[in-house]
Amino acid sequence: MVQFAIRMPQTEGGCPEWTMVELQGELETRDSSGLPGNRLGDLHFTKGGQPIVLIGHHVLHGKVVELEKPFAVLVKEKKKDNKDDSTDSMDTGDSAEDSEKCSDYLVKAVIRNKLVFKNRPRPIINLPHKKGL
Amino acid sequence: MAGKSRTLQEAQAVAEQAKLDLTDLNSSVQSLYLSQDMGDHEVRLVELDSSMVKHLEAGNSLMVRGDKADMAVVCTDDSTFELKSTQTTNSLLLLPDCRAPEQLVGGDGCLLHKEVYCISHLYLELKQCRPKLKKLQTLLQENVFTGPEYESDEKHTGKKYTTTDLLSLIQASEKELLQELRKLHAVHYDGYWRLVDFDYMGNVLQYIMDTVDCQSWSYDQIPTDKLLSMEDNVYPRVVLQHCLDCYGDRKTMELDGGSEEVHVLSEDKVCRYFAEYLLKGVGKFNLAEFLQTWKESVPVGMTTDLQQLEGVALIDKKSHPQVISHFPVTGLPEDAPDRFNRLFRTREKWTLEDITPYIRDLCERKQTVGSLLTKFARASTLPDGTKVYNSRVPIK
Do B89 and A14 touch (CB under 8 A)? Predict the structure, then answer.
């Protein structure tokens, strides 16, 4: 059996709180540059606290949702001896001998809120005279 | 990187083009960028409940225990949860540093640069479940305790397990493991958990009762320490204490010298032992003969009752003469479909009264015996009006 722990490193200031943004479907880039490094879009909030996101040609209206069950963001703890620990123990079906110890998972952050964008995107229509976007 | 030198004015221009009412918007804007090394950021998202988060914040761990063939489970100190992977078509973007509306500075506002750590389509959910304890019996049967004198003989070379050993092999929380060990009457001997041989346990019990009779004590008030400290005790203190705890209950008595710890022997548990002694290895026992023999075998003053044999023995009322046989629930499979299959293989139709002691332990957190039967059995009525349950599926 495989056994490992999920731990929260005890740091001053406590565990960081992150936010989740939930969008429908997948994000794609128009060119072949791939996603990393690119600007995604702008996040605005109305005075009433409602989030609005502008991505590409789309306007998405959403809402802030407090999660009933918080998410923990886990990362694998790096093994000190640099052994190749390529088996992902979170996927079961490991061919492990009795009680094999593998890396612990550390809680990098907790997510208690998410910005959910469920509305169908409203496309932004470009008016020709605006420049410098 | 594209657009790093973006200004607030540029962002506001886009917002205007999108026909957003700038007067209704907070003056600050967060510009979201996908981090350059997003591909290296491998994370797992797990849904936890608030008590687990508090548990982790206090510096405690959650243990993940995965068996080769099964799902992995997550254990707190006292509960076990199945870990289930869920996929979503939605994109879940994780932002380490997003500001909530109330955290945005007022006035003229500013453009804030925020990075998306990674995007996920997968998360793990936890669902409370019964711990998987059947393996415990298999492990402990490798070396059953039959008395200190035999510990070094050839029948006792099997592996022995400590609590830590067991926790690394069994998918259960510590509390659930200890509860099951108590249920199995396992003794913690020399740091190891051991199942106690049935006959040996009977000898220890008989010795305790003989000692009580000899000393003119009462079964309802056995002075624990006096008994355990007797000089010529034939059995080790740990074993005597264990037997007292298995077949009696602890009680504090207020007496005229102060208070004293005593054990109250449980009539039900003692009678059950004697019944099992008679039924083990016999197969079927003529019910009438059994009842008589049983009555005569228990200590004077104790009364036998078939209720005491719930989950231990089965009575076949239809056979002539009626018979009783040993049928302990602890010997049955722990997986619900397998359990029901075995029960229906043993007997085609069951009344609610007869089947309940054999399925009660299968109930998950919010299940009842009734809902289990709805799921795994089919109800029907016999000509005489009795309601019975039989299998829903062909019996293997």
Answer: no
